[in-house]
């Protein structure tokens, strides 16, 4: 039997093996093949990680053996030996999933150090301080990452030693001080673990590999995966790489760089480095790094070589690269390269530039931009007039562009819980760490006091498209008391501040923000997307204002106009309430008469805004009691307005109470009980259409949509009412007006009997919100309370209300499409649930052959790009 290979030397892999070796491993292999100087080592595959979980969190014998073999080969290649006291091999252990997950997984450096090898390193380098500094860093990192002893406890020890010596910086500690630190660190280890710090490098290695595997399932990684559609069964690879040292003196250093500016996309090397430092110093943002251009003066040879290799890597990968490098005593090494994370602006500029430079085709460029990223371009910037009047209270680094205004909070938990209560929040932290991810997601903007352009906050914010100002050292923060001081003024939790992520400015007041526009690179890129996509994109819009916004963002029609949203207006709600509490049909008709002109005006506004574009208007959907007052005082007021007794009104309201309103008297069921509601709505739609057609000459074909249908006869009943009224009005008007009557498919029974339903429906629009709710049997409003437990336990990996459950709900959609087409070959098919703006769901809808998706106006560009990508991908699969 052939033995499965779980471990690959860098020289055995290549870039196409990303699924198996992870992104980092595949690129290390590729760089090795290209002859770029890479410290050698090996990659333990993602399949080994999956097997680790399958085997009950145990690393099997065969994997251990293969690791030991690869280690022996690495010893041969480097001429160093693991645990050798004269010439020890030291390695780094890093995670590397298929796609990069910044900050989610953990890294251990300097592995292989122990009480003996540290002396070997000291002798070899002639630098005892360096050796002990490396050892203390290793003990700290290993104990934190592999064992789980809090990092803070080690930092406290380091601070103590510095204090004793009366110095401020780590660099002020000499070899003797660091030896003391090592002794104290090891004591702490014994105290915490009840055993000595492991001296056997192989034991250190296996614990670290296991820690990386384990970190795949830490809560931060699970949250990140859910936010980024990464399946849990991918697993992570582990990279074991021989160490090179950037902290070996003034001719050593370490840095990160991008081949283009990740904030703007400008074509120029953009990076930072620190002389005499190790990798984590740059990423953690603890010391402030130098711009890469300075390297030209400090180490010109290395600079030139670096620039040549960077250019080669970009040309090779046909994309902007994000590289990590280390210079060890004048010799340059590349530790990593990957396609760099970038802001949405930069992503678009780079994609368009690469096409214009002849590197990519338009279709390749379209696949380079993550549709969800466009979101950050579709959100407000500051109102220019208000901005002119505002004076910044501090300036930091413009780490992730955009404008944000909100109340300031000092912890991720508080930011998250305030956001959930509907507040717009800004998260301020000394520096962020992966634990802060949920607060960062909730925040409109992120402000950090420490850290450079590649600090955790900056990288994560850019990835999420959230505005971020980093490294704002002018602000003095007191995290404990939840205050900060800027320009001499103290700000406390809950105060309004505003951030400009494009300039780095921080303002101590609320500044109004304004809606964005699609122009420049964005406009050009979206034109390319429109050229290739076949799926149409409409918007869910209920008002002329939303309709206009949707058209500006490229919507080709309205796929869902929820008429009930208009009912909530202050001037309408009395008439709506009157209709609901009516005792008989006459009373109800009188109330509906009052609503008719208002609804007609709404529809006129929408038709005018949409011109010739199609508009689907859905009839009343929610349970009626949603419109009724709940407070005593409001009930009293209504009873007075309506001239009925308080008690009478109260008992009517009580009688409308439902145990399961989501599955109660709503949707078309309301029309079955009260046909006059559908009569009024039909009248409003048809009269509005005739009016606008006459006045403006637009070619309007009203699309009337009946919600919550589960039975063909039910639809027929409502449709007959619509047709009767519509035909009467049209005949009288003398205007030639065509119209369509269709239905939502949002009750599972409708999907299963779609062939019958299609006999009565000119079109289907999938209401995937309700279809998800009813297929899973859990409420849209309550599922938030328990879904988290499901994510934690890996039962569900994502929120099915945001991303379509293709295996279950998707099957119903597919079934309904097939059955619908069997009855009515050319039936128009769309979807208007939340999933219409979710890229992976859009791809599914393209593949099952829908004609359009409809989503909120702000997600229209996302859906346009997702539809283009779906078309390109399905073409390439044929
Ligand atoms: C749906 O159910 O998917 C839908 C679009 O309707 P609503 O969200 O208004 O119930
Ligand atoms: Mg619905």
Topology at a glance:
Layout (H helix, E strand, L loop, with lengths): L6 E3 L8 H16 L7 E4 L1 H9 L6 H18 L2 E2 L5 E2 L1 E7 L9 E5 L5 H9 L2 H20 L3 H15 L9 H19 L7 H15 L3 H9 L8 E7 L10 E6 L11 E6 L3 H5 L6 E2 L3 H4 L1 H18 L3 E8 L2 E9 L4 H13 L5 H7 L12 E2 L1 H6 L2 E4 L1 E4 L2 E7 L2 H9 L4 E5 L7 H6 L2 E4 L7 H9 L2 E4 L5 E3 L4 E4 L2 E4 L3 E5 L4 E3 L5 E2 L5 H13 L3 E5 L3 H9 L5 E5 L1 H4 L5 H9 L3 H26 L4 E4 L13 H11 L3 H10 L12 H6 L1 H22 L6 E4 L5 H22 L6 E6 L2 H5 L1 H4 L5 E4 L1 H9 L7 H9 L16 H15 L4 E4 L7 H9 L4 E4 L4 H18 L1
Parallel strand pairs: 3-4, 16-17, 17-18, 18-19, 26-27, 26-33, 27-28, 28-29, 29-30, 30-31, 31-32, 32-33
Antiparallel strand pairs: 1-2, 2-7, 5-6, 5-7, 8-9, 8-11, 9-10, 11-12, 13-25, 14-24, 15-19, 16-23, 20-21, 21-22, 23-24
Concise description?
With 878 residues, the chain is an alpha/beta fold. It has 5 domains: 5-242, 2-Layer Sandwich (Dna Ligase, domain 1); 243-341, D-amino Acid Aminotransferase, Chain A, domain 1, CATH 3.30.470.20; 378-512, Phosphohistidine domain (Glucose Oxidase, domain 1); 532-622 and 669-875, TIM Barrel, CATH 3.20.20; 624-656, no CATH class.
């Amino acid at each position: 039997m052939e033995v499965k290979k779980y471990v690959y030397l860098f020289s055995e892999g290549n870039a196409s093996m990303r699924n198996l070796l992870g992104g980092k491993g595949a690129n290390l292999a590729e760089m090795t093949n290209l002859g770029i100087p890479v410290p050698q080592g090996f990659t333990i595959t993602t399949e080994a990680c999956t097997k680790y979980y399958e085997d009950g969190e145990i690393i099997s014998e065969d994997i251990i053996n293969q690791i030991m073999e690869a280690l022996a080969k690495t010893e041969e290649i480097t001429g160093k030996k693991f645990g050798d006291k004269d010439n020890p091999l030291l390695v780094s252990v890093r995670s590397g999933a298929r796609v990069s997950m910044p900050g989610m997984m953990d890294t251990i450096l300097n592995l292989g150090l122990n009480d003996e090898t540290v002396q070997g390193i000291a002798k070899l380098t002639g630098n005892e301080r360096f050796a002990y500094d490396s050892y203390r860093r290793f003990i700290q990192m290993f104990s934190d990452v592999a064992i789980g002893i809090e990092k803070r406890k080690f930092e406290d020890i380091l601070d103590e030693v510095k204090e004793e010596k009366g110095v401020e910086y780590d660099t002020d500690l000499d070899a003797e001080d660091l030896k003391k630190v090592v002794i104290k660190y090891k004591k702490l280890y014994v105290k915490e673990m009840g055993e000595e710090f492991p001296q056997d490098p192989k034991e250190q290695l296996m614990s670290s590999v296991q820690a990386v595997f384990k970190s795949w399932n830490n809560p931060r990684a699970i949250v990140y995966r859910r936010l980024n559609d990464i399946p849990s069964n991918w697993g992570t690879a582990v990279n074991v790489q021989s160490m090179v040292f950037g902290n070996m003196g003034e001719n050593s250093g370490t840095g990160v760089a991008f081949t283009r500016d990740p904030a703007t996309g400008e074509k120029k090397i953009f990076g930072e480095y620190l002389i005499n430092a190790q990798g984590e110093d740059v990423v953690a943002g603890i010391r402030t790094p130098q711009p890469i251009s300075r390297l030209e003066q400090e180490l010109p040879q290395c600079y030139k070589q670096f620039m040549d290799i960077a250019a080669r890597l970009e040309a090779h990968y046909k994309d902007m690269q994000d590289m990590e490098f280390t210079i060890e005593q004048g010799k340059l090494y590349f530790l990593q390269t990957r396609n760099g994370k970038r802001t949405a602006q930069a992503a678009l500029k780079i994609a368009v530039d690469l096409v214009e430079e002849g590197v990519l085709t338009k279709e390749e460029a379209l696949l380079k931009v993550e549709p969800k990223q466009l979101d950050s371009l579709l959100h407000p910037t500051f109102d220019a007039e208000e901005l002119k009047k505002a004076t910044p209270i501090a300036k930091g680094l413009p780490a992730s562009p955009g404008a944000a205004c909100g109340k300031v909070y000092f912890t991720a938990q508080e930011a998250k819980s305030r956001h959930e209560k509907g507040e717009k929040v800004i998260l301020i932290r000394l520096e962020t760490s992966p634990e802060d991810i949920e607060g960062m997601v909730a925040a409109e903007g992120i402000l950090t006091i420490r850290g450079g352009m590649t600090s955790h906050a900056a990288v994560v914010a850019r990835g999420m498209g959230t505005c971020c100002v980093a490294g704002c050292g002018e602000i003095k923060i007191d995290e404990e008391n939840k205050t900060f001081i800027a320009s001499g003024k103290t700000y406390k939790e809950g105060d309004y501040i505003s951030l400009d992520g494009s300039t780095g400015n921080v303002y101590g007041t609320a500044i109004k923000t304004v809606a964005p526009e699609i122009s420049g690179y964005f406009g050009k890129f979206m034109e390319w997307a429109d050229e290739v996509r076949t799926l149409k994109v409409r918007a869910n819009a209920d008002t002329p204002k939303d309709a206009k916004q949707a058209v500006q963002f490229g919507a080709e029609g309205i796929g869902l106009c929820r008429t009930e949203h208009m009912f909530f207006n202050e001037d309408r709600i009395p008439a709506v309430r009157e209709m609901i509490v009516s005792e008989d049909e006459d009373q109800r008709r009188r109330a509906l008469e009052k609503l008719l002109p208002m609804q007609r005006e709404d529809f006129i506004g929408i038709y005018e805004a949409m011109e010739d574009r199609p508009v689907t208007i859905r009839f009343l959907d929610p349970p009626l009691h949603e419109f009724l007052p709940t407070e005593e005082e409001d009930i009293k007021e209504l009873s007075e307005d309506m001239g009925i007794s308080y008690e009478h009104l109260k008992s009517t309201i009580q009688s409308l109470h439902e145990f399961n309103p989501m599955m109660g008297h709503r949707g078309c069921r309301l029309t079955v009980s009260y046909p006059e509601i559908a009569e009024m709505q039909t009248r409003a739609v048809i009269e509005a259409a005739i009016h606008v057609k006459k006045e403006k000459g637009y070619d309007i074909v009203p699309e009337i949509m009946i919600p919550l249908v589960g039975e063909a006869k039910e639809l027929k009943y409502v449709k007959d009412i619509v047709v009767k009224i519509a035909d009467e009005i049209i005949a009288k008007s003398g205007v030639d007006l065509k119209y369509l009557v269709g239905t939502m498919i949002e009750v599972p029974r409708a999907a299963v009997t779609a062939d019958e339903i299609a006999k009565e429906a000119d079109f289907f629009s999938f209401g995937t919100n309700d279809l998800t709710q009813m297929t899973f049997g859990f409420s849209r409003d309550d599922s938030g309370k328990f879904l988290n437990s499901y994510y934690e336990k890996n039962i569900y990996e994502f929120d099915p209300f945001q991303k379509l459950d293709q295996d279950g709900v998707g099957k119903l959609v597919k079934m309904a499409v097939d059955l619908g087409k069997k009855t009515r070959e050319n039936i128009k098919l769309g979807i208007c649930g939340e999933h219409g703006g979710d890229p992976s769901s859009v791809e599914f809808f393209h593949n099952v052959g829908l004609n359009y998706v409809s989503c909120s106006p702000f997600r229209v560009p996302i859906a346009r790009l997702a539809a283009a990508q779906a078309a390109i991908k399905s073409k390439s699969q044929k």
